[in-house]
Amino acid sequence: MSENPTVPSEPGKHIADPRQLLLDYLDYYREVVLSKLAGLSEEELRSSRLPSGWTPVELIWHLAHVERRWLRWGFLGEEVDEPWADWFHGPSGPERWAVPDGVSTAEVLETFHRYVADSRAITADVALEARAEGGGRFGPAEQAPALSWILFHLLQEYARHAGHLDVVRELADGVTGE
C-alpha cells in the first residue's frame, strides 16, 4: 500500500468574501484532484478499475476541457476548436472520456495547468454578477448564466470528481482520501 499523498489545505474559515471563498475552494479542489494522482504509476494512471472504463489521466483531461468549455467557450463566448475533445465519439455520439492516442501524461497535465491558468486569468477581475457573452456555449446573451453560476458549477464538478478519484485510488493501492 502506498503512502497517502499530501492533501492540500482547505481554504481558511476566516474567508468571508463570497468571491474569494468560491475561487479559493475551486483552487483547492483543483489541487485535490491532482494530489490523488501522486504516487500512481504510469500504468495505474492509464488503467481503469471501473465498469465505465475511464482512467485517472482521462479524468484530468476531461477536467482540463471542462475549464475551457465553461470559461473560454462559455463565459467569454469565444470559439474554441473541438470543445468536446475530451470525449471519445462512437457511432452514436459521445461515449466516454478519452485522451487522444499519442498524448502523454505529461502533456495531459501541462494542458490541465494551462487551461486552469487561462480560467484564473479570465475570472481575475470580473464580478460574480457578470453574465456570459452571447454566442459560444450558451447561445443568446439573455440566456447566459452569471459567472457565479459557472464557477459554482465548476466547483461541484471538481468535488464530485475528487470523490471519484478517491474510489479509484483506494482500488489501485489502498490509499484513502480525506
- Quaternary structure state of the chains depicted: single chain
CATH superfamily placement:
dinb family like domain
Number of strands: 2
Enumerate the strands of the largest sheet in spatial order, edge to edge or round the barrel.
1-2
Mean residue pLDDT:
90
Helices and strands, in order, run as: HHHEEHH
Overall 3D form: globular
Number of structurally distinct domains: 1
Largest sheet: 2 strands, antiparallel
CATH topology: Four Helix Bundle (Hemerythrin (Met), subunit A)
Terminal-residue CA separation: 16 Å
Count of helix runs:
5
Poorly predicted segments: none
- Beta percentage is 5-15%
What's the CATH class label? Mainly Alpha
Question: Secondary structure elements and their pairing?
Answer:
Blueprint lengths: L17 H18 L6 H4 L10 H20 L11 E4 L2 E5 L7 H19 L23 H27 L5
Antiparallel strand pairs: 1-2
Helix pairs in contact: 1-5, 3-4, 3-5
InterPro entries: DinB/YfiT-like, MST-like
Protein name: Mini-circle protein
Pfam families: MST
